[in-house]
Amino acid sequence: MKRVSLAILVVSLLAACGGETEPATTAGNTEASDKPSITLTTDQQETFARTCGLCHGVSGTGAPAAQDEEAWADRNTQGMEALLDHTVNGFGGMPPMGMCMECSQEDFAVFIQYMSGLECEE
Amino acid sequence: MNKKVTRRELVKTIGAVGATAAMGGWSNFALAHCKKPQFVWRNWSGGQECIPAARPAPATEEELAAVLRTSIKPIRPVGSGHSFSPLVPTSGSIVSIGQLAGLMDFDTETKQAEFGAGTVLSQVGEPLKELGLAMTNMPDIAYQTLGGMFATSTHGTGLTHGSMSTQIVGLRLITPNGETHDCSETKNVELFRAAQVSLGTLGVVTRYRLQCRDAFRVKEENWVAKTEDILADLDNLVGQYDFFEFIPMIHSDYSLVIAISETDEPVKHSEESGEEQGNFFMQLIEKTHKYGSDFPAARTALMNMVARQADFEPTVDDSYKLLSNVRNIRFNEMEYQVPIEDGPACLREILSLIKEKNLPSWFPLEYRVVKGDNIMLSQFHGRDSASISIHQHYTMDHHNYFAAIEPIFWKYGGRPHWGKLHNLNARQLAPLYPEWQQFQDIRAEMDPEGKMLNGHLRRLMQSV
Asked: Which residues of A touch B279 (CB under 8 A)?
């Protein structure tokens, strides 16, 4: 869609009045890191593919791509606890439980670690 | 000689005794939470939640049968959790069908393919394309499961296309007592017609056989036009395009048109994907309303200006890549199906009420058309329908907004979408469905103990 320059200018001025800004999203950048944080088992890969991977593995969804260090850098500063909370309870466009109806918090932590490279806190 | 007890020692002792007494008085639920935090299940929008006793995810039909026989009831199956209505919440067992997924069988002669019910819609297109096949139509949301989609009478748009359940030619149902029933258009026909749309009340359908067609490409064209102009030309537009719908932007005079038709033109991608264009458009509308809602006249003028300047590039691609989308803006939704001839009048009343009362919302509506069918609990049973949806952003309260509009749907004899929010019960639903009692008789036979009914479904299925 061609950028609607006048409308965007007006709306941008309005947006500058306040309100939160969401972390920068990644559109279509699926460049993978050279060093995956962890390796998923076969079962975990299958679960990931039909849940988190539906958004984090597809461009244009607004979700940070799995193992895209640049996309996850800002998010990782929030820490594992915050990312886990977002996953379990939903955050922005991400639904609660990230489509995995049977996953435990431990399962989610593994997938977050896999996508973000963030180490689980002791 | 007695030992003197200091005041400090006395207080400490009382505290210890009190703590011990409190432990003995804690509920099992509290104690369980101490050992391991209880998991709160929530649906896609976050509007529905519950604390289930168990969340099994059987990997095979045999495991599922055992789960259904033995799980804590009420038992509710779940796909992606995309339903807005409380079909899933239970204090018993939420059974995930997620592992019952994938392409299971196909026949390129008859152009039929069989998928596990837990297959997510976005995972259907590619396997079918590899066989030279495609679904005849698809709904908007790409991450719902086939099971959830069919169970709730979900649909796309297009007057020559029925709801998604009309594509089913066979299915396998496992009942709450673990029995397996294979049904089709020629085998166990009445059970088949009931199970095509059954809200997970007969048991769990584990696989669906679909009538597909040769793979095809479509061309999507988008433009913005005055809502009244679209309504005046609606019959022509619906007849001209294979898959036609429009998105009325409330608090403005305009709608976004989404017109898709089959084509043999070569693939052509726009600069941004359909999802990116659509999601950007929504964010623009949201910001306009956020800062303009206190000034209705100015907001309408700004919305109209934005609408008039919108310009979209047509896109050509495989059907499954354009008919179904990933939406990253969460919301709650109410949708009703009214007789197609009443659609324009119903929509006009809704838009008029929103404007008159300045109802608090910014989310556009949606207007689609669906061909009638003969499925027992299909929302489109016996009549071509106009499907009208209203939405509220998930962070905003929807109750008053939906409650203000819902009576308009009732006035036109509307049938609510099973998976979306509504306030009808069995007494009000029964007259809307000519085969209501046939369905209830089959349901009682398949689930005599009512194991599959949570509170919401008891209200829907059982007259008080």
From this structure: 62
